Each structure stands twice: as C-alpha cells, then as structure tokens.
Amino acid sequence: MAPPLGNDVHTIRSEHRHTRRSVLAGLAAFGALGAAGCTRVASASGKDGGDLLQRLRALGVVRLGIAGEVPFGYIDRDGKLTGEAPELAKAVFKRLGVDRVQPVPTEFGSLIPGLKSQQFDVVAAGMYVTPDRCEQVIFADPDYQMPDAFIVPKGNPLGLRTYADALRRHAKVATGTGYAQIQHAVEAGYQESDLVIVPDQVAGLNAVESGRVDLFAATAVTARLVARGSAKAESTKPFVALVDGKPKADGGAFAFRPTETRLRDAFNAELHKLRRSGELYRIVRPFGFTKAEMTTLTAKELCGS
Questions:
Q1: What are the residues whose beta carbons fall under 8 Å from the beta carbon of 285, sequence distance 6 or more?
Q2: What is the β-pairing status of strands 233-235 and 173-176?
Q3: Which of 72, 96, 212, 274 has the highest Cβ tally under 10 A?
Q4: Measured in whole angstroms, how far is the alpha carbon of residue 266 from the centre of its chain?
C-alpha cells in the first residue's frame, strides 16, 4: 500500500479547508462534551436483542460515530453535525423516542473498533455493507446504493471512465483510506501496493489537481461534490465496478453492535417507513444524492447470507 500524500498538500479550496478544520475542532469540542455530559451507555448481554434502545430513550441522546467525510457525516463550517447519515439518524431516532444525537468523530478505520468498544452507539457514516464487516457488526438495510466515479483533470485527457480504462492507460490511481474502491481497483488488475492511499477526498482532489495522480476513485456522490467548483478537475460519469467479473452493487447503511438486534430492527422499521413515504429521499437529496441512488437492497443480500 502506498503511503498517504501527507501534509504537503496545501492547495485546497477554502470550503474544504474550513470543513477539515471544523472536523478537528469538533473532535475536541465533542470529546469534551462526551466527558462532561454524557455517560457511556453500557451494552446489555444481548439476551432478547439487547436493551440499548431502552437506555437511549431514558438518556434522550444517541452517540453517532462519524468519519468526517462529506457528504456522509461531518461537522460543518459552523461546528454543527450534518451529512446524509446524521440527518437520517436524527429523523429515525426521533421516531424511536430519542430526541438528540451526539457526534463522535473518528477515522473511518476506527469506526467498527470504536463501536465494539462502546465509544459510540451507532455508526452513522454511510458505511458500505460487506461480508467481512458483517462478521463484526450488524447492519440496518442500506439507505442508498452507490456506483463509483473518478475525479480526473479537466477534459479527462486520458479518457478514464472505468478501472479497465485506467489499467490500460497505466494511470496512477489514488483512493481513500478504507475505501471500497481499493478492492474495485485490485479486482480490475491493479496491485494494492501500486495505489496511492490518501487520508480523505480533499487530499484526493489535490493529488489530481497537482498532477501527482491521474485519478481519484470514490463514490459517485463524493466525486461530484468534491470536484464541483474546481478549476482543474472534474468528475466522470458514474459506473458500476466489477467484482469477480460481475457488477458490484454497493450499499451504505448504519451499523450496530451484534448484541443490539432489537435496536437494529426498530431502526429498520422506521427507515422503511421513511423510504415508502419518500421522506428518506427528501432528507438525503440536499447532500447530492439522486433518485438513482435510492435502493431496496437489504443487508442480508449484501452480507451474502
């Protein structure tokens, strides 16, 4: 695995600089809040599906693990929690009798360990449901389905539209830490050690703009939002990656500790109501999601069981 780009990437548009600073500030501010005003909710033994939902109702607050990634879950320039997953969590948990949400920012790779060690109650980061992750946590049904897209230099001079194109043109590929696009590129024929792994989508954009890589691979919604307004880069049309020679449907969902099936099932029930009423799409649309990215996939399908 190639090392991240590091801290020498400075040409970031102001809104992204502000977002990253806000995330760091949020880590400190909300960490202090957690220490001062929110007692850790112990997990039940798992008997009868756990009692976390009952405990959250009593406390009136649920702690959400987020990874500081636009548009999935982040602290905005005003220091407020927002994003596709947190806004959806607010709607669902209010219906479940929990009025407040408290963000716990962390790195993407720390979300599942943090959930298992009870640093927060739910992962609300648009996490893809994969068989490997299903062995560690339980998922609600996906709230979106997402193809991939690339961020490329303006005009897409190499004509990069799929991973096969990139491999054929010997393109240098960057993607984010823990991203599913690592697997997608490897399935296309790349060696993982040949990929440039960057800490986030802002670093990916800057790697493309500076010419250090030929493309940054991400979800379609991430590519659209990050490249928007760039004078040097653009996003490609969405495409479905191939895994084991077949189109791979990726869906993002909320994750819960395996003992808390009661909470997961209650969350699912309200999520399905929001989907049927159209409210789910209304909530996520401001974050760049389209109707094409709404889904009826289930966690069971994506877990492979």
A1: none
A2: unpaired
A3: 72
A4: 22
